[in-house]
Amino acid sequence: MSRILNGNPPHIFEDGKQPRDFVFVEDIARANVLALEAKKGSYQAFNIGTGLPTSILSLSQHLVELCHSNVRPRVTRNFRKGDVRHCYADTSKAERVLGYKAETSLKKGLRKLISWALSNKVTAVDNFEQALAELERKALAGFS
Predict the structure, then answer these.
(1) Strands, DSSP E only, in the chain?
(2) Quick check: helix, strand or coil at residue 75?
């Protein structure tokens, strides 16, 4: 989001199709309360998320749209060492034991995030170029 708010394109590693699970912070907070209150959940680990895969490219396109920007995500096809291709939560145990299910859709959560950032006059600092240079210096990114 900081890239977009500064007029820079989101930098997308690989092909952008790698799925991730983006969950809104209020859903995470609610899951924590459910875990604290559930007697059956004591001392257990739970995957908390939406259970819905969303591609990195799709997320960046949603952010561009919601920020009313004209930038286009830059798909580099370069890799980061150790990056996982598929990563999203299996929330079935949390649903069964805690009664947890994410309530906030991706777009609604992004709208809330952007609204919060703009209403709180959060300065979007874009340090991506420095971070990428450090990854490349350490041979952790840039592989085609």
Answers:
(1) 11-12, 19-20, 54-55, 74-75, 79-80, 141-143
(2) strand
d(CA 49, CA 33): 15
Beta pairing, strands 54-55 & 19-20: antiparallel
pLDDT, tens only, 54-108? 999 999 999 999 999 999 999 999 988 888 889 999 999 999 999 999 999 999 9
CATH value at residue 64: 3.40.50.720
What DSSP state is assigned to residue 40?
Answer: T
How many domains does the structure of the chain reveal?
Answer: 1
Q: How many CB atoms lie within 10 A of CB 39?
A: 5
Residue 102's domain comprises 2-143
Closest to 31 in 3D by CA, of 19, 48, 14: 48
